[in-house]
Design goal:
homodimer; five-stranded parallel sheet; 8 helices; 5 strands; globular
């Protein structure tokens, strides 16, 4: 997603408890200081329809098991709205978009986690995103035990946080694998480092892009 | 979807105002008289999650335009829940399922109506339905003017009923084309005939299957 008058598209990924929200806020501050017009957003969500899907369907409000296929379809329905109605117009007018989770999370959670084929997800991705992808994906990485311990302190477990340890091992493994396959698009930050070091790493990374 | 201890899967299709609900009820009565265990259902809907999607996302409750891609994704999310949690288990235990609209409606409305490729819909269909298809699809056919006139008398227009005349011409054309392509699966009933003739036609059709 390049060309010089356009904004950049940066996504922040990682399992629960690695500090994505803090990283998102910090990225916003760094870019603001550089006078870069910035939009901070999140997935699933970012538009009224997508937030509605997140709140009511991807969280267990209804007494019926959500199938992995339906979960995938709902994720991409929310993403289509977010990408085409919010992200793409912002980027086209020169705004940098920083998004807490995007399609890498689908590969990790619905793919590696729930067992849906990677090729199938790629088919959805290329259709819904018109073959456009993030410029930079920052993966905050930590061992599953440490990350989940942090996530537990924070709030009630959501539907994903109720998953098994093995589920999150597969999710983490998928993120790291993707970073290894496409080193130019991905940056892995060790989220077990002291907070100021993580922030320093993130700042340097963003400054390289501004 | 055959084999002798299993139930049959019958779908009823057609544009607004052709009498699908009446036909569904009648089909239920005919099969009941024959002591065939029957489930009458509808799409989008038929499960708590699918009905929720119908009521809240496929009808205009949220102030954001629903994109054609998202509409398609939501239709298939609802269908996955309905097909795998309700229709398939019923058929497997010997129940006949009669459904007011199914995937033909997706070809007609999201495909011919909104312009999404037929091949793309076929890809979703084969995935979500595990390559299983209705045994019999009854298309109630009437010219668009007559059908919409009837639909208007009945209730407030829904999101689809607000579409243009041309939209419904394309939808009707798609239904008729499918019936022509696969004459063994489809039966077209002229919905402009007097009600008792339509019902007679439907009865004869079902008796051939029982």
């Amino acid at each position: 997603m390049s060309s010089h008058d356009k904004g950049r598209f940066i996504t922040i990924e990682g399992i629960e408890g690695v500090g994505k929200s803090t990283a998102l806020r910090l990225a916003g501050e760094v870019l603001k200081k550089e006078n870069v017009p910035t939009l901070l957003t999140r997935e699933p969500g970012g538009t009224p329809i997508a937030e509605f899907i997140r709140q009511n369907l991807l969280n267990p409000n209804i007494d019926e098991k959500l199938l992995p296929e339906s979960e995938l379809l709902l994720m991409f329905a929310a993403r289509a709205q977010h990408f085409k109605n919010v992200i793409l117009p912002a980027i086209n007018e020169g705004t940098w978009v920083v998004c807490d989770r995007f399609t890498d999370a689908t590969y990790a959670y619905q793919g590696a986690g729930r067992g849906i084929d990677r090729e199938r997800i790629a088919w959805f991705e290329s259709w819904v995103q018109n073959e456009m992808y993030p410029d930079l994906t920052i993966i905050l990485d930590a061992p599953v035990d440490i990350a989940l311990q942090r996530a537990k302190k924070r709030s009630l477990p959501d539907r994903f946080e109720q998953e098994t340890h093995q589920f999150f091992e597969r999710v983490r493994e998928c993120y790291l694998q993707r970073a290894e396959e496409w080193p130019t698009r991905y940056e892995v930050i060790d989220a077990t480092l002291p907070l100021d070091e993580v922030q320093e790493h993130l700042k340097n990374l963003l400054h390289r892009w501004v």
